[in-house]
Here is the input.
Amino acid sequence: MNLKLNFHPEFCQDTLCHSDTALRCGLDNRCPPDLLHNLGRLSVLLGDIRQSLKLPAGALKINSGFRAEALNAKVGGVPHSQHCLGLAADVVCPEFGCAYELAAAIAQLPCEFDQLILEFGKWVHVSIAPLDQIPRRECLSIFSKDEGYLEGIVKR
Ligand SMILES: [Zn+2]
Here is the structure.
């Protein structure tokens, strides 16, 4: 596949692969070349979100973007997480509001996310669909693993 790599300048490869945990634990968290096209599409979506919400550069913060399998295991990510495919990022934006407010605002945008998940009231997981799939624009919330996923962006 010969896809042109296109990154939003703010959400570059280094930013999306950065992980304090990986650095601390000496884990290689570079994105493999065959997944870079995913990461590029994710980058463009994050740029769209940031601009659509009229946020200044730097306001939308990436808590976790790409995760190599070793890092994903270390941070307790679900197996086969979309983070491991370069399809997902966990974001926060204190300048905009709490995680609920950010998730609720992104849910209103016409952008093509696959899943938007308000996670534990603390951050927002946003993902893109794999290239061969149509974005679902699915909105979910999770507050505890026992309770599981709830439909919609839920305020609590
Ligand atoms: Zn996530």
The chain is about 30% helix and 15% strand. Strands lie at 61-64, 88-92, 115-119, 123-127, 138-142, 149-151.
